[in-house]
């Protein structure tokens, strides 16, 4: 599907930090392309350091000030990428914040001021976008709290953040991000530090927004089980590069990239296992400095299938046999020279460590 029919269209997005006398050039994100449609939940998944959060911030004009962001980011077919981080990026998005785009940052609990009632903060967010009187803004704030599942919203709107539980504060942050019913919400690890039950509740709230307002969600997460439960499609990143994308049910049940298979193999099984340890992906990802000059597949040094071609030629994203096109809603795309050799059972690719 082309960018013209997408809410968000990203093409060849890269983030580079220039070098200097004491540091080399670094490229932690390189050449990402994908689309996100209205009412869809797309997850960016991968281990810590995969470039997920930096990608999210580059998309919404909040990359670090010294970052150089290149490529194309279009929202409703309008180019919004300013090319740099810092004030220039924020200025490009000034007219989009609130109504079109909203961000739930990784440190989302710091969004709430401890010295103002929660409802006042949400009302201020509503008034910053819409020309509302105080009473209308207050009503919008209460409605937003009610929409995210906070009981007795009118009363709780008068409470301060410290009077909310962790899960309720997270819901309040989501309410603030969605009080103006934006077209796109970028949620950067929105369930950090929450217990599993609260995680599912919060992600369920985010998912329900597409039913009530058609909001699309770009979910940044390293939690593959949560991605499986809540996302429509998944884009797996490794070292800031796409390795696999497609419908969640396809990618996470029959991965074609060795890295995706390794992530799945390292998850604890549903049934307790006592006679062996979980498979592991040995080694570490290349550094951002190494990525700036790397040739070949970034995962080659850790991949049990890598051969000479993997180390010398960068694999390009291509549709898995049986699908067509690139990044359509039903298409399974993989960037791997050896994807046809990945076994059907993810654990078969990586050696299981014997218990001591």
Q: How is this fold's topology laid out?
A:
Blueprint: E1 8-17, E2 26-36, E3 41-45, H1 52-59, E4 68-75, E5 78-79, H2 86-92, E6 101-104, H3 118-129, H4 134-147, H5 153-156, H6 166-178, E7 184-188, H7 196-213, E8 216-221, H8 224-230, E9 233-238, E10 241-247, H9 248-251, H10 258-265, H11 288-291, H12 308-312, E11 318-319, E12 333-334
Parallel strand pairs: 3-8, 3-9, 6-7, 7-8
Antiparallel strand pairs: 1-2, 1-4, 4-5, 9-10, 10-12, 11-12
Helix pairs in contact: 3-4, 3-6, 4-6, 6-7
Mean pLDDT: 85
Number of helices: 12
Catalogue the unreliable spans. none
Q: How many strands? A: 12
User: Structural class, from secondary structure content?
Assistant: alpha/beta
| Sheet with most strands | 8 strands, mixed
Shape: globular
N/C terminus separation:
51 Å
Description:
The protein has 356 residues and is α/β, with parallel strands linked by helices. The protein has twelve helices and twelve strands. Among the domains are: 74 residues, no CATH class; 111 residues, no CATH class. Strands 6-7-8-3-9-10-12-11 form an eight-stranded mixed beta sheet, with helices on both faces. The chain has a four-stranded antiparallel beta sheet with strand order 2-1-4-5. The protein is globular. The protein starts with 7 loop residues before the first strand and ends in a 22-residue tail after the last strand. The model has no long low-confidence stretch (mean pLDDT 85).
């Amino acid at each position: 599907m082309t960018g013209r029919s997408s809410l968000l269209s990203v093409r060849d997005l890269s983030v580079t930090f220039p070098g200097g006398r004491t540091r080399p050039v670094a490229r932690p994100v390189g050449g990402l392309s994908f689309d996100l449609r209205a009412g869809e939940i797309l997850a960016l998944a991968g281990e810590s350091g995969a470039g997920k959060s930096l990608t999210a911030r580059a998309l919404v004009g909040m990359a670090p000030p010294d970052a150089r962001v290149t490529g194309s980011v279009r929202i409703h077919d309008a180019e919004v990428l300013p090319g740099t981080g810092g004030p220039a990026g924020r200025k490009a998005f000034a007219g989009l914040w609130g109504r079109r785009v909203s961000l739930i940052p990784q440190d989302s609990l710091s969004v709430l001021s401890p010295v103002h009632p929660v409802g006042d903060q949400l009302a201020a967010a509503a008034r910053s976008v819409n020309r509302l009187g105080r009473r209308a803004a207050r009503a919008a704030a209460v409605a937003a709290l009610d929409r995210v599942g906070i009981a007795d919203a009118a009363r709780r709107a008068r409470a301060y953040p410290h009077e909310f539980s962790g899960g309720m504060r997270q819901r309040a942050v989501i309410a603030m991000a969605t009080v103006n019913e934006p077209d796109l919400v970028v949620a950067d690890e929105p369930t950090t530090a929450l217990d599993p039950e609260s995680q599912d509740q919060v992600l369920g709230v985010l998912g329900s927004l597409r039913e009530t307002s058609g909001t699309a969600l770009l979910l940044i997460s390293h939690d593959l089980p949560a991605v499986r439960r809540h996302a429509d499609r998944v884009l797996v990143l490794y070292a800031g590069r796409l390795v696999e994308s497609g419908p969640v049910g396809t990618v996470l049940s029959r991965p074609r990239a060795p890295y995706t298979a390794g992530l799945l193999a390292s998850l604890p099984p549903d049934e307790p296992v006592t006679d062996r340890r979980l498979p592991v992906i040995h080694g570490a990802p290349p550094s951002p400095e190494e990525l700036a000059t790397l040739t070949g597949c970034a995962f080659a040094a850790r991949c049990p299938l890598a051969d000479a071609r993997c180390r010398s030629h960068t694999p390009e994203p291509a549709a898995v046999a049986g699908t067509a096109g690139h990044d359509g809603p039903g298409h399974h795309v993989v960037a791997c020279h050896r994807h046809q050799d990945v076994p059907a059972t993810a654990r078969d690719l990586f050696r299981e460590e014997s218990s001591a």
